[in-house]
Write a structure and sequence with these properties.
This protein is α/β, with parallel strands linked by helices. It has 15 helices and 30 strands. The strands form six sheets. Strands 1-2-3-6-7-8-9-10 form an eight-stranded parallel barrel, surrounded by five helices. The two termini are 26 Å apart.
Length: 661
């Protein structure tokens, strides 16, 4: 667990005393304290950094004297955006956006003079002898499209420009070509080029730091940009050296209020994506817990701790708190966040010891490092993240992103386009939930025999879904109206038809006047031994009603052939993560989750759940299975509070009691 301190807190010496007071009282709560190199987000000249380094020096020395490791967070390596340009670099090559506009607060990452500046900036902070230096996430969104960057890209990829001139306009035309093969090929190459440039910067930073002090550890912050290449394993290698193999990682993303639980879950999935490719030498993986813009009533300490626990469940080994107010009088507001960290330490440590770096097991979209190059639309959104079915997971289906640990795969049109044939057959031999667009793509690719359906139409207005009686549906033939006329609704409602008599229908589509438009959803077991469910409308959404929630869980269990590791069987908005020998539940609603039923893939009859509220462990209860079926045991939890979680522990395949209360 670490804390990050803004440069605004070292404006005067009184703040140093406030820092020492709080840290002395709560010093056992933290492993490391970091100090930002600057407060604003544009690149600064070297005289500025030399001055700031001298201001940081006494802080580092006093923190180390207290027995706490101290580090520097370099906020702007290439810069973010124009802000406080009076101390910025002059006569340098600036970053150019894809549309040709410039950014005077940001540097071109490939210019030799800029690289020398970056190396010297890091040497300045290395001379302070911090325990660790962190590189912030301005590098992670790197995609400079200045003339020299484009020319270098062309030299590395001569086949792309073989019949056309080299220019930004031509590059943009290729990235958004109407020819899907051309645009995909160009996008893949551009993504890999971005990844290469990020890695080069990391290596230059590593060289500069370790020539000053070879014992300093390095860390990197990333975020989910899609076009950065997700090359965490390669970047980690660039940041490590022969003397210091251990590197730190800080997956980022923004959730800035305490009333946005879907955003928390979405960030948790994006964090998992950033961690997926990290090597073993990334021993410390702390989520960026950022309460921007640092107004202490926007996000409570309890919610902050709750959010951090969720990110630990999703793959992190700790939390980096960037939550402190920036004003000079901020010390008046800080103590409750320090107290939160002290309270959270026990449970956070338990999560780290329990999960380690174990991968997630469950269901999710198939994706890989090239996924951002495959949107079906022609206009490329380079900030596109990996796909995430938040509504499916918030009602109790565990999330996974590593293919070998997925019981059920989700396919939309993008997924169906990008997945290689050998991988596609592996997925279709397991369980796949797919939408109508994916059905069309897979039929065009020649995989129709494994789908069992084809689409017969696509309606963009006035469509209802009427369930038919089937064991996978809740009894009563329920219907739903996804309100296609509303801006937030899914617009496409596909009708389907069997292509194999063994396929079965689950619903039909009607218009608002009860006229049948066609069949809406169905299932099929194919010759590979795999199972498929086609959902013609809102396949990854609309699961917050009871009939739809029951339908989803029945379908997921059927698709996985009972291999899904856990799921919430009751009607609650609660998310589940399963990693290694443990299962973790978070209450994702604003009411207590009472009598929550969790189905676990285990034959053990008695378990213990460690339950939290906010930052504190409030109860450990022993629970006996209510019933068992098909390898699942069903455990009913008396209550998980608002901003609460429950941790189930396994030992050698069996859930065991961790602690009595």
């Amino acid at each position: 667990m670490s804390y990050k301190y803004t440069s605004a807190l070292r404006v005067n010496s009184a703040n140093l005393g406030d820092l020492e007071k709080n840290l002395s009282k709560y010093k056992d709560s933290f492993d490391e304290i970091f100090f930002f190199s600057q407060f604003t987000h544009s690149v600064k000249n070297l005289d500025y950094h030399r001055s700031e380094a001298e201001k940081i020096r006494p802080y580092l020395q006093r923190i180390k004297g207290m027995g706490i490791k101290a580090g520097v967070n370099v906020l702007a390596t290439i810069g973010f955006f124009p802000e406080a340009l009076d101390s910025s670099l002059e006569k340098v090559k600036h970053y150019v956006n894809q549309d040709g506009s410039g950014n005077p607060g940001r540097l071109c990452p490939s210019d030799k003079a800029n690289i020398e500046y970056i190396k010297e900036q890091y040497r300045i902070y290395a001379r302070l002898s911090p325990d660790i230096i962190y590189v912030d996430d301005d590098i992670s969104s790197l995609a400079c499209a200045c003339d020299s960057c484009i020319e270098r890209f062309a030299k590395l990829n001569p086949d792309i420009f073989k019949d056309v001139s080299v220019s930004r306009k031509v590059l943009n035309d290729l990235l958004n070509s109407s020819d899907s093969e051309v645009r995909t090929y160009t996008r893949k190459a551009w993504i890999r080029y971005n990844s290469l440039r990020i890695g080069e910067l990391y290596k230059n930073i590593e060289t500069a730091v370790h020539e000053i002090n070879p014992s300093i550890r390095l860390g990197a912050m990333t975020h989910m940009s899609g076009s950065d290449g997700l090359d965490s394993d390669g970047w980690a290698e660039q940041l490590s050296s022969e003397t210091v193999r251990e590197i730190h990682w800080r997956p980022g993303g923004g959730v800035y209020t305490d009333y946005s639980l879907p955003d928390v879950y979405d960030k948790a999935n994006r964090i998992s994506a950033q961690i997926r490719y990290l090597p073993e030498n990334a021993t410390c993986v702390e989520s960026e817990m950022e309460n921007f813009p640092y107004q202490s009533l926007r996000k409570s300490p309890s919610f902050t701790a709750f959010e951090g626990f969720i990110y630990q469940a999703s793959g992190c080994t700790g939390t980096a708190f960037n939550v402190l107010c920036k004003e000079e009088e901020a010390g008046l507001e800080h103590e409750r966040f320090f107290k939160m960290a002290e309270d959270a330490r026990e449970y956070g440590t338990l999560l780290t010891e329990t999960f380690g770096r174990e991968p997630l097991c469950g269901a999710g979209f198939w994706w890989d490092k090239d996924s951002a190059s495959f949107p079906t639309e022609e206009i490329w959104n380079m900030g596109k993240s990996v796909p995430s079915a938040v509504n499916i997971h918030q009602v109790g289906i565990p999330y996974a992103c590593e293919h070998g640990n997925m019981s059920v795969f989700f396919f939309d049109g993008n997924t169906a386009l990008q997945i290689p044939e050998d991988e596609l057959k592996k997925c279709l031999s397991k369980g796949v939930l797919l939408n109508g667009e994916a059905v069309d793509v897979l039929n065009r690719r020649g995989f129709g025999e494994y789908i069992g359906f084809k689409t017969t139409g696509c309606f963009t207005s006035d469509t209802l879904e009427q369930e038919i009686e089937h064991p996978l549906n809740m009894p009563g033939a329920h219907r739903r109206n996804p309100r296609q006329a509303f801006d937030w609704s899914t617009k496409e409602a596909y009708t389907i038809e069997k292509t194999n008599e063994k396929a079965e229908y689950l619903s039909e589509h009607r218009d608002l006047y009860e006229n049948i438009r066609g069949m809406g959803a169905g299932i099929f077991e194919n010759s590979l031994g795999g199972r498929v469910c086609v959902e013609g409308i809102t396949p990854f959404d609309w699961y917050y009603s009871l009939p739809r929630s029951v339908h989803l869980k029945n379908v997921i269990r059927w698709l996985s052939k009972g291999s899904i590791p856990a799921y919430v069987d009751s009607f609650h908005r609660a998310a589940v993560w399963v990693r290694g020998n443990a299962a973790f539940i978070a209450n994702m609603s604003m009411e207590n989750a009472e009598n929550l039923r969790l189905c676990l893939k285990t034959e053990v009859e008695t378990v213990s759940a460690v339950i939290t509220c906010g930052s504190k462990i409030v109860k450990t209860e022993k629970i006996e299975a209510k019933e068992s079926f098909d390898g699942f045991s069903v455990f009913e939890i008396s209550a998980i509070p608002i901003t609460g979680t429950a941790l189930f522990l396994k030992d050698n395949g069996a859930y065991t009691d961790r602690k009595d209360s």
